[in-house]
Amino acid sequence: MTATLASYLTSEVEIKYAILPADTLYNLPEQVEILGVYITTISKTGSPRKVDIIGSLGESALMALEDEVIEAKNI
Q1: Least packed by Cβ within 10 Å: which of 2, 14, 22, 36?
Q2: pLDDT, tens digit, for every residue of 21-35?
Q3: Model pTM score
Q4: Cα separation of 22 and 56, whole Å?
């Protein structure tokens, strides 16, 4: 018998981001743009490989990562 269980994992990720400059024309402050979210996995041959999982993340997860970058960089 096979069964499926939905669960969550906590894993270390590498975040690639850009700081967008403030836009004085529209009165916007500096903003963070997430360009990639990478997780390191081990391939079948045993070598590590980075996989970009940004397409798998929802908007709320991306916003949480942006907030984390802002907090870490004191923007």
Answers
A1: 2
A2: 999 999 998 999 999
A3: 0.78
A4: 29
